[in-house]
Specification:
Layout: H1 2-37, H2 47-66, H3 73-201, H4 207-376, H5 382-513
Coiled coil: 93-131, 207-275, 383-491
Biased composition (Low complexity): 13-23
Subcellular location: Cell membrane; Cytoplasm
C-alpha cells in the first residue's frame, strides 16, 4: 500500500508541477502580451510611426516566440527536486525488490540445504539397516557353523561314549565269566573231593565202579558247567546287544536334546537380532522425527526473521514516504504563501483596472450629461451647473473608490483566510490519509503475521500427524514381524518335536521287532570308580 501511495503521490506531484509550469508559462506569456498590446490608438499615429511600430511588433513577437521555451529557475529547481525524489523512490523500490528476491533466495537455499540434510540422513539410516541385516546374516551363519561343529563333536563324543560303555560292559561280562568259571572250578573240585571221600569211605564198591562213577560225575559236571557257561554267554550276549541298543536309544535322545538346545539357541539368536533390528528402527524413527522437527523450526524461524525484516523495511519506507509527503506539502504551502502577495497584487491590479474602467465610463457619462445640461440650460447657469456636476462626480468617484478599496480589503482578508483554511484542510486530509495508510499497512502486516502463524501451526500439526502415522505403521510392522517370528518359532519347534518323535517311535518299533522290548527304563552298568 505504501508502494501504491508513493506511486500516486508521484503522479500528483508530476501533475501539479506540470500545471504550475503551464500556469507560469501562460502568466509570463500574458505579461508579455499585455506589454506588447500597450499602445496608443493607431488612428492617432502617423503612417510612418505605424509602419515602424509594426516592424517592432513583428520583431518582438519573434523574440517572444524564440524565448518562450525558457523556464523559470524556480520551476527548474522544482523539476530537479521532483526528479531526485523520483530517483530516490525508484532506488527505494529497487532495494525493496532486491530484499524480497534475496529473502526468496535465502528460503530456497535453506530448503535445499535441509533437503540435502534429510537425504543424507535417510541414506545413513539405510546404511545402518543394511549393516544390521548383514550383521544378523553373519551372526546366524556363524551360529549355524558353530552348531554344525558342535553337532559333529557331540556325535563323536556320543560314539566314543557308546564305545566306552560297550567296552565297559564287555570287561564287566568278562569278569563275570571269569568269576563264573572260577566258581565252577571250585565247585568241581569240591564235588570231586567230596565224591572221592565218599568213595574212600565205601569199601564195598569195586574200584572200577568207583572210577566209572567218578567219570560219569565228571562228565555230568562238565556238561552242566558247559551248559551254564553257554547260558551265561548267551545271557551276556543278550545283555550286551540290549545295552548297545539302549545306548543307541540314549544317544538318539541326547542328540534330540542337543538339537532342541541348538534350536532354542538359534531361535533366541533370531529373536535377539530381531529385537536389535526393531530397536534400531525405533531409534531411527525418533532421530528422523527430531530432525524433521528441528528443520521445520529452523525454516519457520527464518521465515519469521525475513518477515520481520520485510515489515520493518515496509514500515521505514512508509514513514519515509509520510515524511516526504509532509515535506512536500510544507514546501507547497510555503510556496503558496510566498506567491500569495504576488497573486493578491494581481487581483488588486485587476480591481484597480476595473475601478479605472468604471471611472472612465463615469467620466464619459458625466461628460455626456454635462454637455446635455449645458445645451438645455441657460448660459448664466453654466458655471453653477458645472460646479454641481463636478461636485457630484467627485462625490460618486469617492464613493466608488471607497467601495473598491473595501472590496480590495475584503478580497485580501478572504484570500488570506481561504489560504489558511485550504492549507489546514490539506494538512488534515494528508494526516488522515497517511494515518489510514499506516493503519492499512499495520493491518496488512498483522494479517500476514497471523497467516504465517496459522501456516506454521498447520505445518506443526501435519508433521505431528505424519510422525504419529509413521510410528503407528512402524509399531504395526514390529508386531507383525514378532508374530511372524513367534509363528516360525512355534512351527520349527513343532516340526522338530514331530520329527524326533517319529525317529524315536521308529527306533522303538525296530527294537521291539528285534525282540529287545521296551528300553525306556534300561539301567546301564555303573562305571568303576564312580
Amino acid at each position: 500500500r505504501w508502494k501504491h501511495a508513493v506511486c500516486g503521490q508521484q503522479g500528483e506531484a508530476a501533475a501539479s508541477s506540470s500545471a504550475s509550469a503551464a500556469a507560469g508559462r501562460s502568466k509570463h506569456a500574458c505579461v508579455r502580451d499585455e506589454a506588447g498590446d500597450r499602445d496608443i490608438r493607431p488612428e492617432l499615429r502617423p503612417s510612418s510611426y505605424r509602419k515602424s511600430r509594426a516592424r517592432h511588433h513583428r520583431s518582438s513577437s519573434s523574440i517572444r516566440q524564440r524565448f518562450a521555451i525558457i523556464t523559470p529557475a524556480s520551476l527548474v529547481s522544482e523539476q530537479i527536486q521532483e526528479h531526485e525524489q523520483e530517483a530516490v523512490w525508484r532506488e527505494q523500490m529497487s532495494g525493496y525488490k532486491r530484499m524480497r528476491r534475496q529473502h526468496q533466495k535465502q528460503l530456497i537455499a535453506l530448503e535445499n540445504r535441509l533437503k540435502a540434510e534429510m537425504d543424507e540422513h535417510k541414506l545413513r539410516l539405510q546404511k545402518e539397516v543394511e549393516t544390521q541385516a548383514n550383521n544378523t546374516y553373519i551372526e546366524l551363519e556363524r551360529l549355524a557353523k558353530k552348531q554344525a561343529v558342535q553337532m559333529d563333536k557331540e556325535i563323536k563324543n556320543t560314539a566314543a561314549e557308546e564305545k566306552r560303555i560297550q567296552q565297559q560292559i564287555l570287561v564287566q561280562q568278562k569278569k563275570e565269566l571269569t568269576t563264573f568259571l572260577d566258581t565252577q572250578k571250585k565247585e568241581y573240585r569240591l564235588c570231586r573231593e567230596r565224591m572221592k571221600e565218599e568213595m574212600n569211605d565205601d569199601f564195598d564198591t569195586p574200584k572200577e565202579e568207583k572210577q566209572e562213577r567218578l567219570s560219569r560225575h565228571k562228565e555230568t559236571m562238565q556238561h552242566s558247567q558247559a551248559e551254564e557257561e553257554a547260558q551265561l554267554l548267551n545271557q551276556q550276549r543278550l545283555v550286551y546287544e540290549r545295552s548297545c541298543r539302549a545306548l543307541k536309544r540314549r544317544s538318539l535322545i541326547k542328540k534330540h536334546e542337543f538339537e532342541q538346545e541348538q534350536m532354542r539357541e538359534e531361535l533366541n539368536k533370531k529373536k535377539t537380532q530381531k529385537e536389535m533390528e526393531h530397536a534400531l528402527m525405533i531409534r531411527q524413527d525418533e532421530s528422523t522425527q527430531e530432525l524433521e522437527s528441528r528443520q521445520l523450526q529452523t525454516l519457520q524461524r527464518l521465515r519469521f526473521e525475513l518477515m520481520r525484516q520485510q515489515h520493518q523495511t515496509e514500515l521505514e519506507n512508509q514513514e519515509e514516504y509520510n515524511n516526504r509527503r509532509q515535506r512536500e506539502l510544507h514546501r507547497k504551502h510555503a510556496l503558496e504563501r510566498r506567491q500569495q502577495p504576488r497573486n493578491l497584487k494581481t487581483l488588486e491590479m485587476q480591481i484597480k483596472k476595473q475601478f479605472q474602467d468604471t471611472c472612465k465610463v463615469q467620466n464619459k457619462q458625466y461628460k455626456a450629461l454635462r454637455n446635455h445640461q449645458l445645451e438645455v440650460s441657460p448660459k448664466s447657469d453654466h458655471k453653477a451647473l458645472l460646479k454641481s456636476l463636478k461636485e457630484e462626480q467627485t462625490r460618486k468617484l469617492a464613493q466608488l473608490a471607497e467601495q473598491y478599496e473595501q472590496s480590495i480589503n475584503e478580497m485580501m482578508a478572504s484570500q488570506l483566510l481561504h489560504l489558511d483554511q485550504e492549507q489546514e484542510a490539506e494538512c488534515q486530509a494528508l494526516r488522515h490519509q497517511l494515518h489510514q495508510e499506516m493503519e492499512l499497512l499495520d493491518a496488512y502486516q498483522n494479517k500476514t503475521k497471523a497467516q504465517m502463524e496459522e501456516q506454521h501451526e498447520r505445518e506443526m500439526q501435519k508433521l505431528e500427524q505424519k510422525a504419529s502415522l509413521r510410528r503407528a505403521h512402524l509399531e504395526q510392522k514390529i508386531e507383525e514381524e514378532l508374530a511372524s517370528l513367534h509363528k516360525e518359532r512355534t512351527e520349527k519347534i513343532k516340526h522338530l518335536f514331530e520329527r524326533q518323535e517319529r525317529e524315536l517311535d521308529m527306533f522303538d518299533l525296530e527294537s521291539s521287532r528285534l525282540g529287545f522290548g521296551s528300553l525306556a527304563s534300561f539301567d546301564f552298568p555303573k562305571e568303576e570308580g564312580r
